[in-house]
Amino acid sequence: NAGVTQTPKFQVLKTGQSMTLQCAQDMNHEYMSWYRQDPGMGLRLIHYSVGAGITDQGEVPNGYNVSRSTTEDFPLRLLSAAPSQTSVYFCASSTYGQGSYEQYFGPGTRLTVT
Amino acid sequence: DQQVKQNSPSLSVQEGRISILNCDYTNSMFDYFLWYKKYPAEGPTFLISISSIKDKNEDGRFTVFLNKSAKHLSLHIVPSQPGDSAVYFCAAGSSNTGKLIFGQGTTLQVKP
């Protein structure tokens, strides 16, 4: 099991560029989510999904899009990058509705927007 | 509106002593709570959890206490070891939505 994988590990974008952060898991987890980590702010939920075809907004969804066409993949799209989106992004997955809420995290993507 | 708060950004303890990390929450719909540990340049890893129907859960050196009336939980590490030095996040969730909300984190330093 690879667990939760994220690509790329590092990315530098110019303001206004778009990109997609990839996330995949091989644990057949229904629930997947994206967080960003900023100094002093902890981990903030961007978007989450409880299954293929179902997504919902978290605490800080503006400027980000997601889709969930398969159980395994949950990409995060930045439509027009802004310096405020400079952060470390983590993807996570877990089972859903089975009484266990432990989320497994990927290694993160460090994004810099100049 | 921060629903989960860790008011102490950092904590320093001596090896062998107890570390107590605290967390407060505001949403009474939260019915499960977790603690995560994070080393630099790695993703957070699960440490211990507690359901709202319990007030204590132990796993080896780690114990989580939940006080629902005060909307407060704490993580006790006894005895603390230098390898415990990391950032600790508490998180709270609702089984209705599956959403997990994290606190700001507390950096624990355990001195040899």
What's the topology here?
The complex is a heterodimer of chains A (114) and B (112).
Chain A: E1 4-7, E2 10-13, E3 19-25, E4 31-38, E5 42-51, E6 54-57, E7 64-66, E8 76-78, E9 87-94, E10 104-105, E11 109-113
Parallel strand pairs in A: 2-11
Antiparallel strand pairs in A: 1-3, 3-8, 4-5, 4-9, 5-6, 7-8, 9-10, 9-11
Chain B: E1 4-5, E2 10-14, E3 19-25, E4 32-38, E5 45-51, E6 56-59, E7 62-67, E8 72-77, E9 86-93, E10 100-102, E11 106-111
Parallel strand pairs in B: 2-11
Antiparallel strand pairs in B: 1-3, 3-8, 4-5, 4-9, 6-7, 7-8, 9-10, 9-11
Give a quick rundown of the structure.
The complex is a heterodimer of chains A (114) and B (112). Chain A has 114 residues and is an all-beta fold. Chain A is 0% helix and 51% strand.
Give a verbal description of the structure.
The complex is a heterodimer of chains A (about 110) and B (about 110). Chain A is an all-beta fold. Chain A has no helices and eleven strands. In chain A, strand 4 and strand 5 form a beta hairpin. The radius of gyration of chain A is 13 Å and the shape is globular. In chain A, about 35% of the residues are buried. The mean pLDDT of chain A is about 95. In chain B, a hairpin with a 2-residue loop joins strand 6 and strand 7. In chain B, strands 2, 4, 5, 9, 10 and 11 form a six-stranded mixed sheet that branches. Chain B has a five-stranded antiparallel sheet with strand order 1-3-8-7-6, with no helix packed on it. Chain B is built from no helices and eleven strands. The chains are: A mainly beta (about 110), B mainly beta (about 110).
